[in-house]
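The protein record filed here:
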Amino acid sequence: MKKHDSGMHHARYALGEITVIALRDGYIDMPSSRLRQAGDRPFGSDLPAEVELVDGMLRLSVNAFLIIDGEQHILIDTGAANALDPSMGALPDALAEAGVARESVRTVTCTHTHGDHINGLVAADGSDAFPNLERLLIPQEEVPLFDREPRLARFRHRRLPLSDGVKLSANVMAVRARGHEVGHTAFEISSAGETLLIWGDVIHVPSIQFARPELTWEFDEDQDQARATRLALLRRLVQPNIFVAGAHLDFPGIGTVAEAGEGYRFTLL
């Protein structure tokens, strides 16, 4: 997997015959208490030194990913638009910087239904962010969560449930990665002997959770399941020619995983 070009809000890669574009929606600051030890215990003064803080807060990158597989443009996650913090909402600028017209995006899916992953379906001006949208795929267990969002009411009759193992194109497949949310889903993209796993919110704090994958996140719907999913995926990702992309890994959020002592190490491409 090789990087071709990049800018402030995008980075373009080749994965075999497929183009992958990392898109920067922005960032969100969270209190360090969101990071949890065993037993769902927040850190206090014992916060590990390797955890990076900005003005006393955890700064999480918010990334989305566009997959171009032949003629298909598949957007995985949409960012937050103007629905959450003003530090987010740059996805339309990221697409423009990458030279991709929003009208070309005809398939949108999400790893799960939290606001920083789905609210970007509606642009800041209230219009449809992707006016030629044909397929909107939502993890089937989270369709009720999606349907409760007033901002997204116009999409209720258009969304389709997404099941484990469904192929979005010849080279893109949905893979359940439960724990962070009830239907949390990763996406496996394969071409020419290389594989990229876009894993959503499996890791929130890359400065520590690769090295200590037992640490969880306050908003994990099932912390034990989230931990088990993280460990299983990390064990797989150390294999050759497998790459990972994450919604909250430092932008552009794509890299490799290697074993490091009793934990793992992430290296950005």
Notes: Helices lie at 91-97, 115-118, 143-147, 206-209, 223-237. The CA atoms of residues 86 and 163 lie 33 Å apart. The chain is about 15% helix and 35% strand. The two ends are 8 Å apart (CA to CA).
